[in-house]
Amino acid sequence: MVSDVMIVPITPDDWDEYRTLRLEMLGDTPIAYLETREHALGLNDEAWKFRAWRANGPTTLGLAGVDASGNTPVWVGTMSAYLSSPGVAHLVSVYLNAGYRGSDVADRMLDRVVEWAQDRPDVAVLKLLVHEDNARAIAFYERQGFTRTGHSEPYPLNLERSEIEMSMNV
């Protein structure tokens, strides 16, 4: 049940849940991330612990959507942001399990990211890069108020494809 999905910060103790969800997202939508599933499968526990540890810090925000409707909470989505340069925060690692797409979970995660960016007096813009072939993600971002900046860059895992930049003022 979608109403049972909580939006929570990722903590260092969440490394195993983070790993499980990251592997799911890399398998589900490989063009959306700058890492292959094969690479992620090769990481040891210490690397996953480090990733979970760095998810929330002075310049980062890492969120998880956790479905608490069953006996065991299940991670169903994630969204992160980081301060990338003066005045700019970047949205990254956006994923929602297929069974939760079309619900309000991604909207609620993005609301938290926008609030986080707005709480920083030096941030005026939230930017992201999205693969040109990821129509579902582009449509979500446009519904949320992001616009294309006109900038694009080669997609690092396939230089024949591009990522387009989108932004919103916060």
Automatic annotation (TrEMBL):
One of its GO terms (molecular function) is acyltransferase activity, transferring groups other than amino-acyl groups. The keyword Ribosomal protein applies. PROSITE patterns: GNAT. Gene3D superfamilies: 3.40.630.30. Residues 5-170 form the N-acetyltransferase domain. It comes from the Bacteria. GO terms for cellular component: ribosome. Keywords: Ribonucleoprotein, Ribosomal protein. This is Ribosomal protein S18 acetylase RimI-like enzyme. It comes from Klugiella xanthotipulae. The lineage of its organism: Bacteria, Bacillati, Actinomycetota, Actinomycetes, Micrococcales.
